[in-house]
Amino acid sequence: MNTARFASALPWVPLLPLLGFLVNGLLGRRLPRTASAAVACAGPLLSCLLSFLAFLQLDSPHAFIECRLGDWITVGDLSIPFALRVDRLSAIMLLVVTGVGSLIHIYSIEYMGHDRGFARYFAYLNLFLSAMLLLVMAENLVLLFVGWEGVGLCSYLLIGFWFEDVEKARAGKKAFLVNRIGDFGFLLGLFLLFRTCGTLDIPSILHWLRLHELEGGLALTITLLLFVGATGKSAQIPLYVWLPDAMAGPTPVSALIHAATMVTAGVYMVARLSPLFFQSQATLFVIAVVGALTAVVAAFYALTQNDIKKVLAYSTISQLGYMFLGLGASAYAGAVFHLFTHAFFKALLFLGAGAVIHALDDEQDLRKMGGLGKKLGLTFAAMAVGSLALSGIPPFAGFASKDLILWSVLEAGLTRNPAWLLLWVIGLVTAFMTAFYSMRLVGMAFFGEYRGPEETWKKADDPKLAMGLPLVALIGGSFAAGIFGWPHLLLGHEEFVHYLEPVVAPAPLQGHGEHHLAEWLNLLLSVGAGFGGIALGYRLYVQSPLLPAALLQRSAHLRQAYELSFHKLYVDELYDRYVVQPLHIGAEWAWEMCDTLWIDGTCEGIARQVMDVGASLRRTQTGVVSIYAVSMLVGGIVMLGWAVVLTL
Amino acid sequence: MSLLDAYPLQHYLLVSAALFALGIFTLVARKNAVAMLMGVELILNSANLNFVAFSRYTVGNFSGHLFAIFVILLAAAEAAVALGIVIGIFQNYGDVDADALDGLKG
Amino acid sequence: MSPTALALVQDLRLFLPEVILVLTTLLVIVLDVTPVRKSHRALLYLTFCGLLLSGIYLLRHYVDLRESGGRASSSNVLLFGNSIALDPFAVYFKGLFLLVGLLTGVLSIRYKKLNPAGEGEYCVLLLCSTLGLFLMVGSRTLLMAYLGLELVSIPSFVLAGFQRDSRLSNEAALKYTIYGAIASGIMLYGMSLLFGLAGSLDFAAIRHALEGQTELRASPLLLSVSMLMILAGFGYKIACVPFHMWCPDVYEGAPTPITAFLSVGPKAAGFGVILRFFYQSLSTHSGGGDWTPIVDQLQWPIVLSVLSVATMTVGNLAAVAQTSLKRLMAYSSIAHAGYLLMGVVVLSKDGIFAILFYLAVYVFMNFGAFLFVVFLHDLVGSEDIEGCRGLGWRAPFPCIAMAICLFSLTGLPPLGGFIGKFYLFLGVIGRELYWLAILGVLNSVVSLVYYARVVKAMFLENIPRGEAEPLPVPFFYSAAFAVLVAPILLLGVYWAPLVKLARYSSSIFGA
Asked: How many beta carbons lie within 10 A of that of residue C7, not counting itself?
C-alpha cells in the first residue's frame, strides 16, 4: 500500500539539511553567526515537520511511502535506483533522528557560540543529519551504505573537530580505522547477499526471503558478516574501542552522534533486515551473547570512570548492548523501542553533562565537581531525570523498554534454551550496575561539597534559553517516552510494539499470560535491581563519600576489581600489544622486504627508466619551428609508407 | 572545349603536385618566417588547382571552384594575421628568423 | 522571394545560437570602438551574456530535437544546402563549447597579463573562435569542416600571441600560426584529392560514391594518402602524434586562459569532426551500432589506434620530466588526445558515447587545473611546480580542488575522470582490442607519476622558509574552484544523467 500523496515531499527530508550544509559549508565564513545558526536549524526543524507528516500518513499496518528519483547506477544486470522509502520502522527512526537532532542543533547555538569554527561545525552537523536520514530512508542497501559511510565520515570530522589537538585528531583516526573493519564485513555481506538474492533492494530481498529458504551456512555467513558491520558502527565487542575516544568531539556531537543516532545505525540495520537475520538462529544467539557481554562489560567500565563523558560513553555502549540482546532474542520491536527511549534520555544526559562542562569552564573530571545541585538547578533536574530513566525506574522512559527486552530474554530462556537464562541474569546484573554508576555520577557531581577552584564556582550558572529549552523538552521526553510501550502488566497496551510488528519479523512467541508469574518476577527484579543500584550508589557517594576509598583500602579483592574496571580490563593495552604492535611489526617487515626488494628494485627501476625516457623525449622538443615541420613531415611520410604497405 | 582536349587532367594534377612539393621544400629549407608563409601559400594554391581541375574535368559542377574561392579568401585572412604576428616578432626580436625562436622548448 | 532564399531564411532560424554569437561579436566590436567609458571587464560580461543567450536557444533546439521524434536520426536537420547538420551530436558539442567559452572568460577575469585596453578584441576573437567550433562539429561537408577549422584557428593564432610585449607569447603565436598553416595546407591538399576521387564535398555523398565504386583499382592507395593528409589537419587540432610538436610550446607561451581554451575547445571540436568524417564518409554502418571501414584496404582504425598509443605514450612520458605546470598540462592534454582516440578506433557507438562522456568531464578537470595555474600566477607569481611547494597548507581549498582535478585526470575513483576512463576502456574491451586497453591502462599508471608529483609538492613538501603564513584566497577563486570541482565529484558518484545525455547525443551513429 503505497501512499503516493506524500511521495514527492520525501526527498526534501534529507535534502533540507544538505542545503544547510551547502550554505554553511560554502558561505559559512561570510555569514553572520545568527544567519548561519538559523540556516543550520531550519533544515532539521523542517525535516522534522515533514517526518511527522509522513508518520501521520502511515495509518494502515503495511503502509509505506516510496519515492523513486531515477536511476543511479546501471551496469549490466545491476540496476540501483535512487529510491527512498518510509515505512513504520523508518518513520520512527526519522522522528527520533530529526526530533532529537533539531533539539541538539538548537542547543549547539549557545554551546558552540564562541567557537571559531561555528559555521564549519553546523555544516558538519547538517551533513551528518542528511547522511543519517539517507541511511534510514534508503530503499536499497547500496544507498543505505552511502548513508552508512556518510555518517562515519561526519563522525570522523566532528570527533577531530578541534584538530589542532593531536590527541583528538588521533581519536578521529581511531574511529575511522575501527569502523573500516566493520564496513569491510558489511560490504562482504552485501556482496554475498547480492550473489544469493540477485538484488540489493530491501523490499525485494524481503520478498525473496518469503519465497525461498536460505541455506543454513549461507544464512549464517551473510548475517554474521552484516553483524560485523553493525558491531563497528554500534560499538559492540570487539569493535567498541573507538566510542569512548570519540568523546573528544564537542559535547552536543557526542549527544547526537555517539548516543542518540549514528550508533543506532547497526540496530536499525538488523531490525530492517530482521527476516533475514531470523533465518539464522545461530547468528541471533551470537548477537544476543555479544550484546549481553557488551552490556555488562561496558557497565563494569563505567563504574569507576572519573570523566563525566567517559561514564556516559560506556553507558551508551552498555545500552546498545541491551538493544542487541533484544534483537538476538527476536524482540525487534522491543529493541527499537529501547533505541527510541534511549535516544531521549541519553541525549538528555549528554546535554546535561554539556551544561555542566560549559558551566565549569570545560571541566570534565567528576572528582573536581560536587555540590552543583545547589547552583545548577535545571541541569541537576536534567541529569536526575536522565539517570532515573537510564536506571529503569518507573515511570521514566528506560523502564518500559528495558523491561520488555529482559522479558523477551527470560521468555527465550523458559521456552527455548536455558542458556538464555544466563543472558537474562547478565542483563539484570547490568541493570544493577547501570543504576549504581548513574547514581555515582549524579552523586559526585551534584551532591556534597564542591571540590574545584573557587572562581569557577562563582561563575557557574545554569544554561540560558537556547541550551535550556532542549533540556526541558528532553526532560519531558524522558518522562513520557515510556508511555508508548507501557507494559500490559501495569495496565498498558504496548502500542509501540504492536505498531512495529507488521514491519519487522515476528517474534517467535507471543506468550502473554502463559508465564504470568515469570513476567511479574522479571518486572520486579529489573525494577528492584534499579532501586538497589541507586540505593547503594546513594549510600556510597552521597551519604558517606569517604566510604568508597576506605572500602578499597580494606579489601584487596575490591581493589583488584576497581583496577580492572578503571583500566577497562586492559583491553586497549591488549589490543595494542596483540593487534596493533604485530601489525606494526608485520608492516615494517613487509616494508623492508617488499619495499627495498620490490618497490626499490623493480618499480623504482621502471620509474627511473620512465624518467630517463621522458627526459630524452624532452630533448626532442627543441623549440625550433623548422625541426617541428620536418618531424611532422617525417611522421607523415612514415604513415604514408605504412599505408602503402597496408594497401598492397 | 578545345582546352579540355589539349590538356588532360593529369597535367593539372602534375603541376599541382609540383607546387605542393615546392611549398613543402620552402617550408623545410627557408628559415625566414615570411618565406615560410610563402611556402604555405604555394601549398594552398596547389590544392586550389586540384579543386578547380577536378571540378572542371570529373565532377562537372562548381563546388570545387567554390572551395577554391573560399580558400583564397581564408588564405588572405591567414596571411594578414600571420604577417601581424611576424611584425610583433620583428618588434620584439629585431629579426624574423623562425629558427631563432627557441625560448619555448623541452 | 525565391524558394532558395526562403529556405535560407528558414534555415537561419535554426541557426540562431550561431547568429547570436555573430551579433554579440558585432556588438562588442561596435562598443569597443565607440569612445564611451566602459567599466573594467564590461565587454567580457557582455560576452558572457551573448554566450548564455546562445545557450538558451541551443537548449530550445535540444528540446525540439527530443520532441520531434522518438528516433534521433529522424530528427536530424540539415541546414544551408546540407552543409551543416543540426542533430543531437552537434548540439551536445555546442553546449560544451559554450561552457568552454564561458569558463575561458571566467579564467580571464582575474588574469593579470590581460591588458584591459585589448579586452574588446580579446572577446571578439574568443567569440569568433567559439563560432568556428560550432561550425566544425556541425559540418557535413569538407568545405564546412575546413571553414570551421580555419575560423577556430585564425582567431586563436592571435589569442595565443595576445600579450604583444611578451616574447614568449609572440613566439607561441608564430609557431602556432606556421604549424597551423602547414597542417591546414596539407589537409586541404588531401581534401582536394578526396574531392577528385569521390566527386563530391558532402560526407554522405563521398560515402555513396566510394561504396558505389566496386572496381576501385588504383584508388585505395590514393584514398589512404588523402585520408592521411586530411588527418594532418584534424590531428593538429587534437594534438596527436606526430602533429603534436606545437602543443607544449604554444600552451606555455599563450596566456593561461587561452591555453585552457585551446586544450579543450579545439580538441573537442577536432574529435567531433573526426567522428563525423571518419564515420559518415569512410565507414559503413554494419548494424547494432557497429561500423566497418568502407573499403577493406583502407584500415584507418589500425592507423588511428597506433597513433592513439603513440600519442598517449609520448604525452605521458614527456610530461614526467616537466617542471612548468603549463607544459605539464600540455603534455597531459596530448596524452588525453591519445585516450580519446581509443574511442574513435573501436568503431562502435559505445566508443563514441565514451568520447562524448569523457569530453564533458574533461572540460571541468582541465579548466580546474588551469584555473589553479591562473591562481598560482596571481597569488604566488609562479607557473612552475616549484611554486606549489607547501601551498597545500597555506591555501588548502584551491590545492584540494587542484588535487581532485589531477586525480580525476589520472582516472582515480570516485571521481568523474574514473567513470569517463571506465567507459572508454569498456568500449575498447567490448571490441576485444585488449592490447590497446592494456597499453592505455599502463599509460594511466605512468600519468599518476607526474600528476601526483604536483600533489606531493603541494602537500608533502616543506614550505620555503618565511612563507608559512596562510594565503588569503579571494572569494572569486574559492567560488570558481567550487563550481569546477563540484561536477567532477558529482559525476564520480551520480553519472546516470550525463550517460543518458551522451547516449542520446551519440545515437546518430546507430541507436
From this structure: 14
d(C-alpha A555, C-alpha A571), whole Å: 24
Residue C77's DSSP bridge partners are C86
Domains in chain C: boundaries: 301-511
Chain C partners within 8 Å of B104 (Cβ):
168, 171-172, 175, 248-250, 252-253
Query: Among all chains, which residue has been given the C-alpha cell 618588434?
Result: B91
What whole-number distance in Å separates Cα of residue A573 and Cα of residue A191?
A: 34
Instruction: Look at A610 and C449 and tell me if their CB atoms are within 8 Å.
Output: yes
Q: How far is A605 from chain B (nearest CA, A)?
A: 23
Weakest-pLDDT range from A377-381, C67-71, C164-168, C245-249: C67-71
Distance (Å, whole) CA A346 – CA A398: 10
What's the whole-model pTM score?
0.70
Contact C201 B27 (CB under 8 A): no
ipTM score here?
Answer: 0.94
Q: Considering CB atoms only, which of B28, B101, B105 is closest to A630? A: B28
Residues in chain A within 8 Å Cβ distance of B104: 623
End-to-end CA distance of chain A: 71
- Spatial separation of the C-alpha atoms in residues C70 and C57, rounded to whole Å: 21
Q: Spell out which residues of chain B touch residue C191, defining contact as CB-CB under 8 Å.
A: 47, 67
pLDDT digits (tens, 9 = 90+) for C269-313: 999 999 999 998 888 888 777 888 877 777 788 889 999 999 999
Tell whether A622 lies on the interface with B, counting CB pairs under 8 A.
yes
Q: Are C91 and C145 in contact (CB under 8 A)?
A: no
Q: Any residues with CB less than 8 A from the CB of A1 and at least 6 apart, and which?
A: A60, A62, A63, A64
Distances (CA, A) of C418 to A97, B5, C481: 35, 63, 19
Q: C215-230 pLDDT, tens per residue?
A: 555 577 888 888 889 9
Give SS3 for A148.
helix
Cβ-Cβ contacts under 8 Å for A440 (sequence gap 6 or more): A303, A311, A537, A540, A541
Whole-number Å distance between alpha carbons of C313 and C444:
10
Q: Domain limits of chain B?
A: 2-96
Cell numbers standing for residue C274: 573526426
To which residue does cell 601581424 refer? B84
Closest chain A CA to residue B102: A623
C-alpha span between A255 and A99 (Å, rounded)? 13
**Does CATH place domain B2-96 in 3.50.50.60?**
no
Chain A nearest C-alpha distance from B89 (Å): 14
Q: How far C127 CA lies from chain A's nearest CA (Å)? A: 29
**Distance in Å, alpha carbon of A609 to nearest chain B alpha carbon:** 18
